[in-house]
# Entry
Amino acid sequence: MKIFIINLERSTNRKIEMQNEMQKLNNNFEVIFFDAVDAKLNKHIFYKDKYFSKLTKYLIGKNLSDGEIACFASHFLLWEKCVELNEPIIILEDDIIIQPHFEEGIKNIVKSNYNFVKLSSINIDAKKKQKTNHHQNKHFILSLKGVDGTQGYYITPVAAKAFINHSTKWIKPVDNYMESFWIHSVPTITYTPRLIDDHPNYNTTTIEQRRVKVPYRYKFTRELSRLLLNIRKQFYMILHK
# Structure
């Protein structure tokens, strides 16, 4: 199976760290470093036509940052690669460490019928998230409330096509979009115990950076959009119970 590691070309230290991490695995994996879309080099502007900034302001109260657009683009390009290869792949970001049971976990995932499985999630253990988690069995958790993060996941062409087909306009960060199962019909499944963990040397998330002050004129539309999206989510859950 192919493992694609999202890595900025200028982040040579992270690449070396990930090369060392991959030494933990046997030869059953083909490791490929994927050049991430670099916002600092303005490469994200090639995807501006996919970004619906006006709607984003009304829905979440602010624009996506250049980094968030670049991150979405990097994952989007790998979804396209998954479809092109017509085979499941593993996508990792370059700020993780491999757990000892990684290979066993991947074997369990491949044997399952899931098309999208997170190998770890930032907020899977948060109390407010746990309330909507459903243990499918000892290794798989279905989350109905976003658990955040794109550190690593397994994806099949079926899920990749669904993500692509429903993201003609990017109006939210990529991890939030991937967890919007009521939009693309791909459930959020997380493997437990986690197969990867945060690298202690790196900051793995921009979640904190999203908590910015929302201009007053967008607060009402943001809350209204949350209400409408929640209604849509509830209808979806009733129809697909």
Remarks:
- Residues 2-239 form a domain with the Spore Coat Polysaccharide Biosynthesis Protein SpsA; Chain A fold (CATH 3.90.550).
- The longest strand covers residues 2-7.
